[in-house]
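Could you show me just one protein sequence together with its fold in token form as a worked example?
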Amino acid sequence: QVQLVESGGGLVQAGGSLRLSCAASGRTFSTWSMGWYRQAPGKERELVAAISSVLSTYYTASVKGRFTISRDNAKNTVYLQMNSLKPEDTALYYCAAKRYGRSEYDYWGQGTQVTVSS
């Protein structure tokens, strides 16, 4: 059973930075694609950033140039560095794993809250 545990959320002022971490269990982490999703109250969940097993990355348009996704396979951990945070980045951020051969993300963390004050 895969477990994903997020950390690093919190309250920050606009313009500030946070780094989210997601620690994963499992021996084949390096073969998974990993993603960070977020969901704000009253809004649909959206994919913020993703990184594949070969380190290709994706960012939604609203975070390009401000957020950076990375992974450390030795630590089974994926990160989301968030800079120049805006109030509209406020949301519950989830880590997700798409195991090798799967077409969709099939494991999810519990989420970590990010609140950006203006």
